[in-house]
Design goal:
Mean pLDDT: 92
Low-confidence stretches: none
Number of helices: 6
Strand content: under 5%
């Protein structure tokens, strides 16, 4: 067996499954609002289109990062950093939108806080993991 896979910490499996599931849910929910008229779009209220498009697109990256982490691929740690940083950039742009008087839903603030926190944590953990693996610990 691959030595990297042998030293796989227990947390990698649930975090990988979570990232993949979160990505699938993000695609489903975001796609419902973006691509279909009806209840989901009405329930979304005053959504901010660029945030919704970003989150929907990021769903694909969430899935890829989860798959990469599951397979203990080093690139998944880099992807997690890109997701975290990109989410923070979009969250900042959203903040500017709000400060300029743009319409928004409070649940967007909550969701972006959650997304930012999750991906910062995954990026931190994944990078520590691969740093440890590369150092042979």
């Amino acid at each position: 067996m691959d030595p990297v896979m042998q030293n796989r910490p227990r947390w990698v499996t649930p975090v990988s499954i979570f990232a993949i599931s979160f990505g699938l849910l993000t695609l489903k929910e975001g796609g419902s609002v973006l691509f279909f008229e009806g209840a989901a779009r009405e329930a979304a209220g005053s959504y901010v289109p660029f945030v919704l498009w970003f989150n929907f697109s990021a769903g694909f990256a969430y899935i890829a990062a989860g798959i990469g982490l599951w397979g203990m691929k080093r690139w998944s740690a880099y992807l997690a950093v890109i997701i975290a940083v990109s989410t923070l950039i979009v969250f900042t742009a959203f903040g500017v939108h709000v400060l300029q008087g743009g319409a928004f839903e409070m649940r967007t603030v909550i969701a972006m806080t959650l997304r930012s926190s999750i991906w910062l944590a995954i990026a931190f953990a994944a990078n520590r993991l691969f740093l440890r693996v590369m150092q042979g610990k």
